[in-house]
Every structure is written in structure tokens, then in C-alpha cells.
Amino acid sequence: KKEFDPLVADNWYSISRSDVLPFHGGKELLKHYNNAPWRAVMTAYPDVPFKPDNFKGYKAQVMKKRSGIHGYWTDIDNVRRFFDEFAQKRGMDPTIADNWYSVLREDIYKAGGSAIRKHFENSHRKAIKEAYPELDLDLSKFNSLTKKAWLKVL
């Protein structure tokens, strides 16, 4: 059997709460890290180049928790990360300005980004513009109709 090397990121990605709980202090450790074993691992080994998305349960927990974390959306890196994931799921390149102009508010909400609007004057367009300053987005080019309005037009 191969010896476990704690400095190899791939060795940690499958860790779950049930792996931690049986150990003495496991419950307290999980409580300290908001029931996220991946947080404990990343804190314990800060020099290991972890890819958080690879941790079991990371995406689900982040999606569930992020809108409830005070100040989460005020950090533009979190907003950018959300839009990067959003673009990836839609199969679009987030670094091409024209790709953003057809994105509707409802699309952002359905993807879990409804809380973003509170931090950008109720505008997903302003959030996208601020997340991608290098694109020099033109707010007037964004589609301002909702899906419901589009259905009436069609």
C-alpha cells in the first residue's frame, strides 16, 4: 500500500466530513471550519497548490453559503469567480466582451447570483463590467429586456 503524502493535493480531494468525525477532536475541527474539511486542509497546508473546486462538496457548499457570507460579493474576486464559472457552464469565453451582451438578469439569478445585484445598484451589467475591467464593456449594448418581455416581442 502506498504511503499517504499530505503534501500532494490529489490525496485530499475526496476528504469528507465522515472521514474527519471519527477522530478525536474531529467534530470540533469541523465546527471551527464551518463543516468544511477542505477549509481545514487548505489552512493546515497553505503551501500546497490546491484547486478548491476539486474538493468533494466544495462547489455545493460554496453555492449554498456564499450569498449568506457577510461581504462575500463586495470582494470583486468572488464576483469574477462567479462569472467565470457562469461563462464556463454556458460554454462561452468570459474574456470576449460580445459574449456578455446577451446575458439576462434571469440567467444570473438562475445560476445562483441573485445577491450580486445588491452590491452593484441592482445591475448584473454593472457587476459584469466591474468584474472584467479589461474588457471595456459598453453598458448600452447589454440586452435590457427580460425573458418574459422577449416572449412578448416574439
Entry keywords:
mainly alpha; 154 residues
Please render the helix and strand layout as text.
Blueprint (H helix, E strand, L loop, with lengths): L16 H4 L5 H7 L4 H8 L13 H8 L10 H15 L14 H6 L13 H8 L15 H7 L1
Helix pairs in contact: 5-7
Short description:
By secondary structure, the chain is mainly α.
Structure characterization notes:
It is a single chain. The protein has about 150 residues and is mostly helical. The chain is built from eight helices and no strands. Helix 5 packs across helix 7. The longest helix has 15 residues. The model has no long low-confidence stretch (mean pLDDT about 85).
Strand portion: under 5%
**Low-pLDDT ranges:** none
The count of helical stretches stands at: 8
Helical amount = 40-55%
Estimated radius of gyration? 19 Å
Number-wise, the strands total: 0
Order of helices and strands: HHHHHHHH
Give the helix/strand class: mainly alpha
Shape: elongated
Please describe the biggest sheet, giving its number of strands, its sense, and whether it closes into a barrel. none
Average of per-residue pLDDT values: 83
Distance between the termini: 64 Å
